[in-house]
Amino acid sequence: MSSATVPDPPSTRSDSFWAFWAVFAAFGTYFCMYGFRKPFTVAEYSGTTFGGIDFKTIVVSIQVLGYMLSKFIGIKIISEMPPKHRAIVLLGLILSAEAALALFGIMPRPWNAIGLFLNGLSLGMVFGLVLGFLEGRRVTEALVAGLCTSFILADGITKSVGAWLLSNGVREDWMPFTAGLIFLLPLCVCVGMLARIPAPSEQDIAARSARNMMTRHDRWSLFSRYALGLSILVGIYLLITVIRSIRADFASELWGDLGQETPPSIFTRSEMWVALGVMFVNGLSILVRNNRLAFFLSLGICAFGFVVVALALIGQQTQSIGAFQFMVLVGFGLYLPYVAIHTTVFERLLAMTRERGNLGFLMYLADAFGYLGYVVLMFSRNLFLGRENFLNFFISACWVALGASLLALAVAAIYFANQGRQPVISSAIAEHG
């Protein structure tokens, strides 16, 4: 059995109670983390350029650079993290991120961008620490869907908070630090709740496999065994991450290019609809007990999401849908595969193969290369694109990503349908006796 964070709960404590507890704690923790990461993106920093690059692109790129480096570091640290250390490390990273935002406020431009680099470096491992409390359970998809709903909703709500602070006279460079203070206390409460979640039960382990801390040998063994299939999935995730991040970090610019005014509430309203739809679709995966079937259904959910994005792009280009509908449909379509990979694809891959490993390793492998792709895009964008063409750039990038992702999904499905059949059979025998 994997290491426990606390002793097994007494029999009077129901599974349902701990499931709701875990969802609330994980949702709250990651929701509040976004209060330290995203509010700055609502500021436009207009009129400020350095080396021909606008300051908004500089700060977004430099924060993502730190975030991306943290993901590469996390491949080792998260996969090896003892459960008893997760909560204290998580709080330390959050406090470091807030200190970095203070640095952003104190230092002059453009040197204050260093503060956002350090902020991203601190926050990049938070997701893996939270995920460690939730994986390897019979209801993991529902728990992680709740966790992922937090970053969909938080992306909009924390931007609304940032916009509200700006409208009340807080300076652009101090707004991120001020927003972080608002979210600090509730985050600490939610981390305390995370630390009380019991370890997976014996029934969970029988259904989903034990999740172990991984050595370097364990990581290489798991990757090499499924190298082609995992590489394809990581490539798909890279494309989704790039497009999703553009939509998230440059939402103000996209709304403006669509001719839509952007009061603070619009970020919350659009993401609320996205979150509800994505949570519902991906959370239903817990109803599928067969791990192999659930894995392939999750690939189908990814494909469905790409089709939704394609329909939204056609609707916008033919002017048959409005700006709000376009942003919601694109968000829904992009987050369907993005969240499916978080909740089901890697979770059920481990469950059906019974390989030694944990979800944190696979997610950080994907996240590291996903954010690497976004960093490359952000640093190269100004070489060929003016800020005034942002909507056209976004639409073109979506079409490229959709075509490549659908082709890659088909190849991945064929690969995994023909690989590892013996482990899958063994898994089925272990599950059903």
TrEMBL record:
The keyword Transmembrane applies. Coiled coil: none annotated. The keyword Membrane applies. The chain crosses the membrane at residues 17-36, 87-107, 113-134, 143-165, 177-199, 220-246, 266-288, 295-315, 321-341, 361-379, 391-417. It holds the Pfam family DUF5690. Keywords: Membrane, Transmembrane, Transmembrane helix. InterPro entries: DUF5690, MFS_trans_sf. It comes from the Bacteria. Signal peptide: none annotated. This is MFS transporter.
